[in-house]
Write a structure and sequence with these properties.
The complex is a heterodimer of chains A (531) and B (70). Chain A has helices at residues 10-31, 38-43, 50-61, 65-77, 87-97, 99-109, 114-121, 127-158, 164-213, 217-225, 243-258, 261-269, 273-305, 339-352, 354-395, 401-427, 435-449, 452-461, 466-483, 485-491, 498-505, 508-530. The longest helix of chain A has 50 residues, at 164-213. Chain A has 22 helices and no strands. Chain A is 75% helix and 0% strand. Chain A has two domains: 14-29 and 39-428, Sodium/glucose cotransporter (Up-down Bundle), CATH 1.20.1730.10; 429-531, no CATH class. In chain A, α9 crosses α13 (273-305) and α15 crosses α16 (401-427). Chain B has a domain at 2-20 and 39-64. Helix content of chain B is 54%, strand content 6%. Chain B has two helices and two strands; from the N terminus they run αββα. Chain B has a two-stranded antiparallel ribbon with strand order 1-2. The model of chain B has no long low-confidence stretch (mean pLDDT 93). Classes of the chains: A mainly alpha (531), B mainly alpha (70).
């Protein structure tokens, strides 16, 4: 039987070529710069065309979750999680409906960050600007750390060895940092074109591989039909995905992801309305199909190849009752997301020989591309948030454009190094210093969803007031913290199980949004009455 | 027509990935329950159906309502 290890240096060569290409694109982005201005560094001079825009929006939308987390969820919970794919067309519509308006206003008024537009609209140059920047940081920081960690984990899978994790994490962090620092948005977007293409190809290839391993579509679905009843119905194996929770998670995951800072800046960077119109259509068509016919099939095929139930038909569980993956996939409830890697490594080379090894390597490189494209976009956005919304406004308003772009570059380098140190220290520590970051990562979309009421008001309604916007946003963020594991750590079960029940009913972000909208509307109404 | 498209799109997400799942969700405790339609998992077919509706709405909006100019 072939395996990844038996093809000598082919995986090294493919990965090396990919990383060299990224560096080349980064340098090309630097050479094509048009002066040292923030607008050029952060928005590529607002000149992106539809091919670059559509692929960079896709690559930013999907992190390593697309190729690891999503099939892992289907592997654990069954076919119900495939319905999560329906959030993608909603995000596609948001690219046009929200993005085109954000782009037009941003171009007319010269905005660089989401906080520029929100603070200006509500006439709150300090409080709201800092709050919106904080939401951006809460989104971007955990994503950068988690993607660097994903690079390390993937390196372990590709090149088993004592220091594979550290080498992989360092390589991902260093190369991402270099091309973001040198070329800014232009390099990030151009590398995203390559990474987005790899991501789309990898998602489809993984699905085709999973179906092929089981003998083609007919035998595949015959085998899937024999899975345990819980795998073929809602709320799934763990009972988590009730239709109500799935609905709110799908709806707000798409909207929250589309108004996070990195995407918002991509709307500013688009050359025209037509660019975002086309991007919306491509996004809704291509990515949903990649989900339905790609990675979701890997999760279902995984349940056939590596059953969750033992020979007696009983689920393997921990002492606390949490469902476990098949022992060949992992030993803990956190290892369901290894299913794609396990299927590819164990079956594709067997099925297709050396070509299978190359294809499996390409999909694994696609996972790295997904991680890097999310890390680079968030690093770049993070630099804009701190430099433009804090440094430029409150520290050195008199600084030159050149100074500002170099401060932004220095910040990218500093954040990357800090994130890398955190990942490596966490890896070597007995405790879990990354635990907090991982929790923040899970809450990231819920945080960015809290910008939705202000965004909709600014672009369509124009009825909100500064007081309503500030207090509404604080209420939304506070609700998320109250429902997050952080509150349980501090206060235990202070509300007699009410918070736990709320979490099971609908998504945490949706609760935050509900209270946010109520407070925003009530205070805005009151402020307008007073005026 | 615009309002119809908006309503249809919202209906598609509500039925496809929301409470509408209850309409087709097989009961896992019922030994006689059928879990497949046309040889595919019923819930998967349900999702594909509503994706077709969502994308059809997007196509109509793209060609008829989404503006190409400024």
């Amino acid at each position: 039987m072939n395996s990844l290890g038996e093809l000598g240096n082919v995986p090294h060569v493919i990965l090396g070529l990919y990383l060299l290409l990224l560096l080349a694109l980064g340098i090309l982005g630097y050479r094509r710069r048009q002066g040292e201005s923030e607008e050029d560094y952060y928005l590529a001079g607002r000149g992106q065309g539809w091919v670059v825009s559509s692929l960079t929006i896709m690559a930013t939308f999907f992190s390593s979750f697309a190729l690891l987390g999503a099939p892992g969820m289907v592997y654990r919970d069954g076919v119900v999680f495939a319905l999560f794919s329906l959030n993608v067309p909603v995000a596609g519509v948001a690219i046009y409906l929200l993005g085109s308006r954000i782009r037009r206003i941003g171009r007319d008024k010269g905005y660089l960050t989401p906080a520029d537009m929100i603070a200006d609209h509500y006439d709150s140059p300090a409080a709201l600007r800092l709050l919106v920047a904080l939401v951006g940081l809460l989104y971007a920081v955990p994503y950068v750390v988690i993607q660097i960690q994903a690079g390390g984990i993937l390196s372990q899978q590709l090149f088993p060895g004592t220091d594979a994790f550290e080498i992989g994490a360092c390589l991902l962090a260093a190369i991402t940092m270099v091309y973001v620092v040198v070329g800014g948005m232009r390099s990030v977007a151009w590398t995203d074109v390559l990474q987005g293409g790899l991501l789309v190809g990898g998602m489809l290839l993984a699905g085709i591989a999973a179906v092929g391993v089981l003998g083609g579509p007919g035998p595949f679905f015959e085998a899937v039909a024999k899975l345990p009843p819980k795998s073929l119905s809602a709320p799934g194996t763990t009972g988590r995905w009730t239709p109500e929770l799935l609905f709110t998670a799908s709806l707000f995951a798409s909207l929250g992801s589309m108004i996070q800072p990195a995407q918002w800046m991509r709307f500013y960077a688009a050359r025209s309305n037509e660019v975002l119109r086309r991007s919306a259509l491509i996004f809704a068509a291509v990515l949903t199909l990649c989900f339905f016919f790609g990675v979701m099939l890997v999760g279902l095929g995984g349940q056939v190849l590596y059953p969750l139930v033992d020979d007696a038909g009983e689920y393997r569980t921990t002492d606390t009752g949490a469902v476990l993956p098949h022992p060949d996939v992992g030993a803990t409830p956190g290892e369901f997301d290894q299913i794609l890697v396990v299927v590819l490594k164990n079956h594709l080379p067997e099925l297709m020989g050396p070509a299978g090894v190359i294809l499996a390597t390409l999909v694994l490189v696609a996972i790295m591309a997904a991680a890097m494209s999310t890390a680079d976009s968030n690093l770049h956005a993070l630099s804009a948030l701190i430099t433009h919304d804090v440094y430029d406004q409150f520290v050195r308003p008199q600084g030159s454009q050149r100074e500002r772009t170099w401060v932004g570059r220095a910040l990218i380098a500093a954040v990357t190094v800090l994130a890398l140190i955190l990942v490596i220290v966490a890896r070597r520590s007995d405790s879990n210093p990354l635990g907090m970051i991982v929790i923040l990562g899970l809450l990231a979309i819920a945080f960015s969803t809290q910008l939705l009421p202000m965004t909709v008001d600014m672009l369509f309604l124009q009825r909100g007031t500064r007081e309503g916007a500030i207090v509404g946003l604080i209420t939304g963020l506070a609700t998320i913290f109250l429902l997050s594991p952080f509150w349980s750590m501090v206060a235990g079960d202070a509300f007699g199980g009410v918070l736990g029940s709320m979490k099971k009913m609908i998504d945490i972000g949706a609760w935050g949004l509900l209270f946010n909208v109520l407070v925003f509307a009530a205070l805005s109404w009151r402020s307008r009455l007073r005026q | 027509m615009k309002i119809f498209l908006i309503a249809l799109f919202l209906l598609a997400i509500t039925l496809g990935a929301g409470p509408g799942i209850h309409l087709v969700n097989p009961d896992p405790t019922d030994p006689g329950a059928s879990f497949t339609t046309f040889g595919l998992p019923t819930i998967y077919v349900w999702g594909l159906l509503w994706y077709v509706v969502q994308f059809s709405v997007i196509l109509v909006a793209y060609f008829r309502y989404w503006k190409t100019d400024e």
